[in-house]
Structure formats: structure tokens, C-alpha cells
Amino acid sequence: MGKIATQVTIMDGDTGEVIKNVYYRGTQNGDGWMIVYRDGFMNFLLNSPDFVTAKVFGSLMTKQKFDSGIKITKKFIADELKVSYRSVMNAFKWLKENGYVKEHKVNGITEFLLNPDVTTCGKKKEEKIRLWNSI
Q1: 53 closest CA partner among 31, 83, 28, 13
Q2: Element (H, E) at 40
Q3: In angstroms, rounded to a whole number, what is the distance separating the alpha carbons of residues 127 and 131?
Q4: Alpha-carbon gap, residue 33 to 82, rounded angstroms
Q5: Beta carbons within 8 Å of 16's beta carbon, 6+ residues apart
Q6: At what angle do helices 51-62 and 38-47 cross, to 10 degrees?
Q7: What counts of helices (H) and strands (E) characterise the chain?
Q8: Rounded to two decimals, what is the model's pTM?
Q9: What is the pLDDT of residues 54-93, one digit of tens each?
Q10: Which of 100, 92, 94 is nearest to 116 (CA)?
């Protein structure tokens, strides 16, 4: 479980008087969480052509970063999911054509973005939407 709360007390150095108590609250959900939006995800589930496509998208969702896209190879995903590379390629083709994944290069490295109306990670959804719309 993640940090629940931290207290910082700010005191006057001369008098020892408490000037301010500051509380920082963490999350009771711990680390490693993501957000999945009901309507977007249900639409994905209803339209996903096969189980491999659902597995690929699910794998990508678990690899989301708070501040950037996902840097991973399609071969790694195929190996991780124990499916053929061709199946992963077909899944990515469908995911891109149907607006669930975008692929671009950052400093020559392939990065995948997930549709922020379906899933995101962190508190900066607006930044992910801007990045999604810029590609």
C-alpha cells in the first residue's frame, strides 16, 4: 500500500512557535494504478476483433507512464503474451485504424500513445490529450 499521509511542521526558529502544519496525502490505492473510462473501454471490448487484440491493448495499458508514451517493441509484446509476431502486428494495425493507439518516434525510438478517452495514467489527462491530438 502507498503512503497514506506525511506531516511537515514549520516552526519559528527563534520562538519555537508552530507556524504551519502541512499534510501531504498519498493514495490508498498504492502505486501502479491506471484509469480506464467505462464508455471508451466498453466500446473497445464490443468492437475488438479478437482476443489477441484485447491482450495487446491490455498489455499496453499496464505499461502506461505518467508523463510520456510507452517505449516497447512489438516483438517484446509478442514474447510477453506468448503469441505470434504476426498476430501482434495485426492487433496494432486494428488498434491504430480504430483510434485506440498512435505510434510515433521520439529521438528515433518508437513510442506508443493510448487514446486518453479510453485509458490514462496520472493526473495530467489534458497533457495526454494534447499529445494525442498533436500526432
Answers
A1: 83
A2: helix 38-47
A3: 6
A4: 24
A5: none
A6: 150
A7: 5, 6
A8: 0.77
A9: 999 999 999 998 777 899 999 999 999 999 999 999 999 9
A10: 100
